[in-house]
Amino acid sequence: MVRHIDENDLLAFAASEPASALRAAIEAHLAECEACRRLFCAWARTSILAGRTVAAPIEPTPAIGRTVGRYVVLKQIGAGAMGIVYSAFDPDLERLVALKLLRPELAAERDAQAHLLREARLMARVRHPRVVAVHDVGLVGERVFIVVELVVGQDLTAWLAARQRTPAEIVRRFVEAGRGLGAAHQAGVIHRDFKPGNVLIDRAGHARVTDFGLAQAADVAAVDVASSGSQLETCLLAGTPIYMSPEQLNGGLVDARSDQFSFCVSLFEAIFCWRPFAGASVAQLRRAMRAPLTIPGGRRISQRVRRVLQRGLALRAADRYPSMAALLAELGCRPRRAESCHEGEEEDADAAAGVPVRSCAG
């Protein structure tokens, strides 16, 4: 959409389906045009929306144009076990945001409310350009919501599948995500569910770590398996076992080195198109981890990356890097150009040299 939007566009926006091309075009334009955001803000305060504003408690799925707190709902953009995520507009600060709203079936569950509040508080601890920022938290009826920075782009899984990627490109994106993960650790936050689906690639092509729904403070990151067997099973089902460290699979102490293991599983998968430990169930993964890890040879990756994977995927946490900072230092901020981690670096020496590129799509 090149021209500025007008009142007719806004009326069409309100009447259109969430997945319509018109709605997508207007939302994309609002993300770029300050003048039109101001118009949208003024429109949001008129009787067009005021007559549709709902009082708490809100309906299970907020309709387009309804408000949650002061935020005007635009469309649903995601969903998880705890919450549903919408793009929304903040009329006070005149910006687009992402709004995560507690699922309606969990509204009466005090533990679920506390869980979402804890997620917001842990996210608020971390201030880093490679971590999605939290803006606000609130309560509508019995449903907690979190408002975070809206990152326009795609997750790392989709980015990897979109086209062929060289090892150099992959390493650059993972270094960025690793910086965000390291910043969380420095703030005393353990992510506990790092995976490609929880890394966003923004329009500038940079990685941002998101979804701290399973995060814990570092000083309480141990899982108390002695209390009940069901607690351990709940913990496992809540996470993503195929990316978990052995200690997390076994209900042991989970710390920053556990995130490091998940990071390296994800990096291994991104480069080679398969995971280092095969298995569709927790039992199968545990069995796979009893066998020695084999990292493919050849020129596909450098010795530097191979060393990082070998150590980061050590089955004993004590054998991994002492921190994400140490792991990233091994990757190097001034490596050979084929593995440059400088943000904005566009040259791809591996591709120019004819090194095989990744193509895992399909």
Question: Can you tell me about this structure?
Answer:
There is one protein chain. The protein has 362 residues and is of the alpha+beta class. The protein has 2 domains: 7-149, Phosphorylase Kinase, domain 1 (2-Layer Sandwich), CATH 3.30.200; 153-352, Transferase(Phosphotransferase), domain 1 (Orthogonal Bundle). Helices cover 38% and strands 15% of the residues. It is built from 14 helices and 11 strands. It has a 6-stranded antiparallel sheet. Strand 3 (83-90) and strand 4 (95-102) form a beta hairpin. The radius of gyration is 22 Å and the shape is globular. The two termini are 32 Å apart.
Please outline what is shown here.
This protein is an alpha+beta fold. Helices cover 38% and strands 15% of the residues.
Estimated helix fraction: 25-40%
Distance between the termini: 32 Å
Give the overall pLDDT as a whole number.
79
Please provide the count of β strands.
Answer: 11
SSE topology string:
HHHHEEEEHEEEHHEEEEHHHHHHH
**Global shape:** globular
How are the secondary structure elements laid out?
Blueprint: H1 7-15, H2 21-32, H3 34-44, H4 47-50, E1 67-68, E2 71-79, E3 83-90, E4 95-102, H5 110-125, E5 134-140, E6 143-149, E7 153-155, H6 156-162, H7 167-186, E8 189-190, E9 199-202, E10 207-209, E11 216-217, H8 229-238, H9 246-249, H10 256-272, H11 282-288, H12 303-312, H13 324-331, H14 349-352
Antiparallel strand pairs: 1-2, 2-3, 3-4, 4-6, 5-6, 7-9, 8-11, 9-10
